[in-house]
Amino acid sequence: PEVITVGDLANRMAERGADVIKTLMRMGVMATITQTIDADTAELVVQELGHRPIRVSEADVEIGVGGGQDRAEDMVPRAPVVTVMGHVDHGKTSLLDALRKTDVASREAGGITQHIGAYQVQLESGSRITFIDTPGHAAFTEMRARGANVTDVVILVVAADDGVMPQTAEAIKHAKAAKVPIIVAINKCDLPAAKPDRVRNELLQHDLVVEALGGDVLDVEVSAKTGLNLDRLEESIILQAEILELKANPGRTAEGVVVEAKLDKGRGPVATVLVKRGTLKVGDIVVAGSEWGRVRALVNDRGATVPQAEPATPVEVLGLNGVPLAGEDMVVVETEAKAREVTEYRQRKKREAEAAKQGRGSLEQMFKQI
Ligand code: GTP
Ligand code: MG
């Protein structure tokens, strides 16, 4: 069914009508500004123009234009979201664990109760930092490809006794491509073999120039083992975050991204979600990738059930009907009917894509045999 005029679509995306018409032409569709097009075509145009289509029903496409829909007066400061990256064994997990021990709230609560893929640390100063536990480079790239670029800052962990290694270089490449500022944590500085200056020089070869060498990249010599300079690392993150002026509208319909998801024996499908905008509440009907459900419970990074989760807060979401994929979006929808419609549509698309892939595979095989 024809659902939207070219003009309306352009309007919703805040694009010029002429650009939408040009995009349509490239897709082989001739249309004027007043003509209507179907939802499938609209979805493609939206993607072509670099926006994120949200298929709310078979016949309707909403457009998630990154942040653009929120009014300035509704925006409030939010915690920075930090992803830790680096070469194998350079101490990413250790560093996250050590940073988490600095958390005021969990110290009060008597220690860390559980491990989830993302957590928030509250500093003595009251500032909060959200850390995403090494999703691995693949997951990071995947999230970026899906337009779910949730990371504000990358902490690049480099072991001072080992220096820049292949995965360090890869992490730099990913962070640069995503235009995310990098803070270098030169780790394992407790070791006698530590050569932090060598690390700084090696980074130079990857166009990462630290302050000491005349650049603007912050670097901190740390040790996850002894806790050396963890406060300085946190200060650097806060400093970087202040420059970015991170804000979100907590009042809107919630949107988030799945950081990790699993099938829990006792609790069923559990998705760790980082809320990007809006406030996610118990009872909300959510669509996550091609799964949906009514939020039965929200569990925070300390294992406590909470009634809601604000922007930049990671929570476990219980109540989904299936396990979504890491990197997929989670959105709140109005009715179960809509949730069903969207997920059925997405599941069908997935099946079609699978079928197409298999079809192409056999065709390639056929050509090989000729
Ligand atoms: P992968 O997840 O496998 O990529 O490794 P990782 O980067 O998470 O490293 P991990 O935290 O597992 O640490 C690797 C090893 O280095 C462990 O044996 C840690 O105990 C050790 N290690 C981490 N940080 C430090 C440090 O600051 N000093 C010393 N001496 N050892 C450290
Ligand atoms: Mg690790």
UniProtKB/TrEMBL annotation:
All copies of domain Tr-type G, residue ranges: 77-245
Subcellular location: Cytoplasm
Binding site for GTP: 86-93, 133-137, 187-190
Function: One of the essential components for the initiation of protein synthesis. Protects formylmethionyl-tRNA from spontaneous hydrolysis and promotes its binding to the 30S ribosomal subunits. Also involved in the hydrolysis of GTP during the formation of the 70S ribosomal complex.
Family per similarity comment: Belongs to the TRAFAC class translation factor GTPase superfamily. Classic translation factor GTPase family. IF-2 subfamily.
Protein name as annotated: Translation initiation factor IF-2
Gene responsible for this protein: infB
Residues included from the entire protein: 294 to 663 of 873
